[in-house]
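Lay summary

Proteins are chains of building blocks that fold into shapes. Our project writes down both the chain and a compact code for its shape. Here are two examples, one after the other.
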Amino acid sequence: MESAIYIVATPIGNLGDLSFRALEVLNGVDLIAAEDTRHTRRLLDHFDVSTKMCSLHEHNERERAEELIKAVAEGSSLALVSDAGTPLISDPGHILVSMARDAGVKVVPVPGACAITAALCASGVPCGRFVFEGFLPAKALAKKACLEAYLYESKTVVFYESPHRVLDTLSVMSEVFADRTLALARELTKRFETIYRGSVVEVRDWVEEDTNQQKGEFVLVLAGASEERAQVGDDEKVRVMRRLLKDLPPKAASAIVADLMGGSKKEAYNIALSLRE
């Protein structure tokens, strides 16, 4: 293999989703850096891959990244994999890739399975434009604050959730969004794959009534706000921004509006500039 770091997507459930190219890379590199070597060993054994492995996870990534980049810079090849799906998407790897770019080390994507796109395309929720939030905070108040930032978001919003928190998350979602359309995708590509769509309240009640639907890994696909609701949100941002600009410079005011009301700092800054003008 060419000396580089290969970002290799692996199956999120069905092993048949591993691409021919991914298998070729895993067989051909000098080393595989895995989030959990025990988990990845089962995948490699299934495909008779004997490439040497090392661990790279959130607790050792910064330290290990330096030695791995040095090895690649000297001519070795490395494959990065997560436990499932595409590395770096709510998984370790950003530090490694960022440091590799800074060091001039080549980084090569090897695309494949990703729970986000799998859930979106089968959800029945508009997916032309979407925002990915990842995992929500564990504590109820922080979770509610995070969700409220999307109250006026017109784009579809995608969340990951774990089995022991999914019911709590749906309960908080029902308080914030109520009748907004939500698709719940569970155990994607696996034997008990389930995709259920309804209002947030309907999905919450459905999961609450069936404990089997509280097991597995979840992707929650929330439809965006209606145009009328989104416009209300924009009007509210303008109102809040106008008040903040009386006491704060545009940059500071924009950071507060983006944090409390959602959207990007750049979008908020543009509102601030238009008001100043």
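And here is the second example, written the same way.
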Amino acid sequence: MTHPDGQTSFFNDASIGGGPSLKDVNQYAAYLGIEVPTTDVFCEHLKDSGFIVFDLKNSNKLILDVGEVGPTYQPGHAHADTLSFELSLEGQRVFVNSGTSLYGEGTQREWQRGTSAHNTVVVNNKNSSDVWAGFRVGKRAQPQGLQVHHDKVFCSHNGYKGINHHREWRVSEHELSVVDTLTGYIKSAVAHYYLHPEITILNKNENEVQLKLKNGKILNVSFEGGFSFLIQDTQWFPEFGRSVPNKCLKVEIKNKTLTMQTKW
């Protein structure tokens, strides 16, 4: 669940500095004489927690959330982030969920736990799961129809009343495609793709944007099936008490289907 930079991914109430890093834990295990198992699996389904991890080549990593929001008996640290994902390329984070910078109650806490703070689709301006107060969760999105293949994953959820959100990820060595399909009565549907603060936006047109990693690598991101595509100024919250300016790619979905394609 760590990115190639050695730090945690941002699903639910995760943040950097909230506990020991994986490197620290491994070093302590070595000190105790415990051998840490390693894996070399392209696609691994972590069934107990509901995540899928693609370890691609050249320090590229894709992490998908296809599970329940948290343990049914204690979902207090849950976010409404079902079907969100994070992507790192060549060791640098590209698409990031917004993170967690505070506990307690208030509009900031509510936003950080809400669906619109994550790389997924917001339907009818609602959260996919009912998160409220500081740590409360009401009705929860249930993942359905999960299919895991070597190079693709299918999953849907029923968090929006009378509406089904289906998402498909297609993965290859140099490309990621994310296909969202919605069924039911929809007033509005907006897909969010949050960029790491160190990603530079070079060019943008009606349905495509060019991004640059800090090592100079160029990415092309395109959308098919959107009404409008805009870039919004926002904030990334990597640790408690800290916020960093970043950008969000927002696309209003047309005709209930949107395809996002990233090539590198």
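What can we say about the second shape? The longest helix spans residues 22-31.
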